[in-house]
C-alpha cells in the first residue's frame, strides 16, 4: 500500500459535535428540522437546500460555520441568539482554509459551508432541476441499484422457520391461522401465506385508524417472521410468488410505520428490502409500490431530486399494470419532488397529470394497498405541494377539502390533513382560524399516534407565538404546551 502523503502534523483535527445546535432541534427529526429551516428561509426571502444530511453535518461538527444564507436563516429562526449561541465557530477562524486543506490533505472536507444557494452536499451537481430528462437513464440505473446488492445478501439471512413465524405473527392474526403456521419441518403452504397477507392488511388498518408510533416496534416481529418463511421455501411456485409479494408488501408497510414515526433510516432500509424482493422475482407491482414509498420518503427527508427520480422510475414500471389510479398517485409523488426543488412549472404539470389520471376512475387492476387513495388523499397531497411552494392560501383550500372528504373512520388522515390546514392558515396570516383548526388536531391526538403530525403541530405553534393575542391562539398554545412530549 502506498504511504499517505499526510503527515501526523497535518492530520485534521476531528470535528467536535455541535451540541448546542442539537439541543435547539429538540424532539424534531433531522428531516423535520431541515423542513423548518427551508420554511424559515422562505419567510425572509432566502433559498437554501437544507436536508437531513446537512443538519447531521452541522450537528457532527463538520460545518463549523454556516454560509451567509444559512446564517441569516438560523438567526431568523432563533432571534436574539448569535452564531456562537448556536454552537458555531467565528467566521474568521475558519474562513480561507479550504485551499490549505486541499493542498495539505488532498481533499479533507472543509468545515466551512461555502455554497450559498446550492446543494451543500454536492456543489457540482450536474442535474438541472428544470430538465426532468437530463441524464435520466443514468439516474435511474444509479438510483435503482442503490443498496440492492447488500439487501440481496441479507434477504434470506433471517434464521428460524415456521415455528418462529407463528410466534411472531401470532399477535396480529387469528389463532387458527397461527396454529397452521406452527407445523414444523415442512415447506410453506397457502395457509402460512394467508397469515402473512392478513398481517399486512391488519397493520394497514391499524395505521389508518391510529397512526404509526404505537405500531412500529410490534410490526418488526411479523417482518422477521415473513423472511423466515421465505427461508423455509414454498411447496409450489404460485405459493412462492405470493410469499415473496407478501413479504415485500409487509416490508413496505413496516417501512411506512418507520417513516411516519420519524425513523427515516429504518424506513429507507425496509423500502430497499422490498425493492430487492421485487427485482429478484420480477414483480412489477411490488417494485412500483416500493419506488412510490421511496419517493415519498425522499421528499420528507429533504432529498427532492431523489423523490423525482424514484417517482419517475415507479411510473415506468407501473405503465404495464393498467391502473390509472396508481399512475395518478405516482404523478403526485413526482409533483412533491418538483415542489421541493421549487420548480413550480414541473410541479403543476405533474399535478395536472395526476388529476387527469384520477378522473379515469378505478379499475380491477388497482393494487389492494391503494385503498387509502381517494379524492381526500389527492387533495391532501396537492395541499402539501402548494405548501412547499409557499402558496399558503391555495394549500389551505386543498387541505380543508381533504379533511372534509376523508372517511371519519380514518382519524389519522383527518388529523394529518387538519394539521396541514393549521400550518397553512398560520403561515398565510390567519392565526385565529389556524388556532381553531389546531384545536381539532389536538382533539384527535388522543386517538392518533403520529410523530409526523405532532411535529407539524409543534412547527405551527412556533409560527403562532407572535400572534398569541389573536382570538383563540393563546388557548391553543397553552393546550399544546401542556401535552406530554413523546420520546
TrEMBL record:
Query: Where is composition skewed (Low complexity) in this entry?
Result: 1-11
Q: Which SUPFAM superfamilies match?
A: TPR-like
Show the segment(s) annotated as Disordered: 1-20, 91-148
Protein name, as recorded: Tetratricopeptide repeat protein
Highest rank taxon of the organism: Bacteria
> Where are the compositionally biased (Basic and acidic residues) regions?
118-148
